[in-house]
Amino acid sequence: MSRLTLIIICFFLILLISLFLIWPKYQELRALKVEVEEKETEFRYLEEYFSKLNQLSQELKKYEAQLSKIDFALPSDSSLTLLSLMNFLQKASSQNGLVFKEFSSFSIILPKPLAEISSPQESQLPSGIKEIYLNFEVAGSYSALKNFLNTLEKSAKLIEVEDVSFSFGEEEIFSFGLKIKTHSY
After folding, report:
1. pLDDT of 25-60, one tens digit each?
2. 20 to 30 Å CA-CA from 31: which of 15, 130, 135, 181?
């Protein structure tokens, strides 16, 4: 065999080997390099994201007292809200010279989903905010009731007095029925 034929066959074999064995591995290597670059970019973005979260966390720690007041005003558990509200009402009434008689009823109203709102005039609370209504009775003088309502107004809890009714008792002691509303999420 001639040398030229041998060179052509070797060249053809090298071309076939590189085409079928080396070229696919080279393509895999390029794809892996691109994937590594994408993962490095994603990692940098995640590092930046977590560093921003850490900065925000540090900044929120400056406002911890104000945030605790918001948590107190709008608690997250309705049952605990109801118990703490009852306790608060009993203490506030006795501090203002009223005698707490009884809790007559309470109700917790969940917000309507957006699909159930029939008219734009219907007020809609933000998702997850519940309304809690509580009816109770206290007895005492008018000035004590006035002080009690003032205490409710100045309270950090978000309390709205919905209804007040009264009946006469003996000597300047009245019986007051109150309906209040507060919120929870």
Report:
1. 888 999 999 999 999 999 999 999 999 999 999 998
2. 15
pTM of the entire structure? 0.55
Residue at 18 is within a domain: yes
**Domain shared by 91 and 168, yes or no:** yes
pLDDT at 155: 84
Q: Do 84 and 24 lie in a common domain?
A: no
| Domain housing 159 | 74-112+126-184
Q: Report the run of H or E that residue 175 belongs to, with start and end.
A: strand 174-184
Q: Which amino acid is at 120?
A: P
Lowest mean pLDDT among 18-22, 36-40, 115-119, 179-183: 115-119
Q: How many helices (H) and strands (E) does the chain have?
A: 5, 4
Whether residue 104 is found in the same domain as residue 174: yes
Element (H, E) at 115: none
Residue 139 near residue 168, CB atoms below 8 Å = no
pLDDT of 144 > 70? The answer is yes
The C-alpha atoms of residue 15 and residue 4 are separated, in whole angstroms, by 16
Structure tokens at 96: 């203002």
